[in-house]
TrEMBL record:
InterPro entries: Bact_HTH_transcr_reg, Tscrpt_reg_HTH_GntR, WH-like_DNA-bd_sf, WH_DNA-bd_sf. This is GntR family transcriptional regulator. The keyword Transcription regulation applies. Pfam families: GntR. PROSITE patterns: HTH_GNTR (PS50949). SUPFAM superfamilies: Winged helix' DNA-binding domain. Residues 7-73, 73-141 form the HTH gntR-type domain. Keywords: DNA-binding, Transcription, Transcription regulation. It comes from the Bacteria. The keyword Transcription applies.
Length: 150
């Protein structure tokens, strides 16, 4: 088979991603565009075209601020809700340090801008704030859905 023209590279990327999804190698959330660019050695526009092709075929969907997901999978809640869930984990108390922006970016595979937006919302709700030293700390614990009375 002759090598694909540069104009068809996005189709090769799209086909490769589709095969990985079908084989379960990508079960839910796709890697970030930056990671895909690095993995395939292609430009952002090529990755965007490949993702657009998969979206048009109903294989993946975009979730604003969260990335690309295999259709029918994944946590579609807003990022702020996912980050707030960190305060619902066992053992978290008022005064405890809150993770850094870098740690949150890595954990949620989200951009620094998206993380900063979630942090700002949480600060606005009084859940976290600037600590006595560098960094943020837990100021209040959120009321969980299980804690609400009907």
């Amino acid at each position: 088979m002759p090598p694909a023209s540069p104009r068809d590279t996005y189709l090769e990327v799209s086909d490769s991603l589709r095969q990985k999804i079908e084989k379960g190698k990508i079960p839910e959330k796709l890697p970030s565009q930056a990671k895909l660019m690095e993995s395939y050695g292609v430009s952002r526009s090529t990755i965007e075209r490949a993702l657009g092709d998969l979206k048009s075929k109903g294989v993946i969907e975009s979730v604003q601020g969260a990335g690309w997901y295999v259709v029918g999978t994944g946590d579609r809640r807003p990022l702020v809700e996912k980050v707030t869930d960190l305060l619902r984990t066992d053992g978290v108390r008022v005064g405890d340090p809150f993770p850094t922006e870098k740690e949150l970016c890595e954990r949620f595979e989200a951009s620094r801008t998206a993380i900063r937006s979630a942090i700002a919302q949480m600060e606005g709700q009084g859940l976290i704030g600037k600590g006595a030293t560098r960094g943020r700390e837990v100021r209040a614990l959120p009321i969980g859905q299980g804690d609400r009375k009907a």
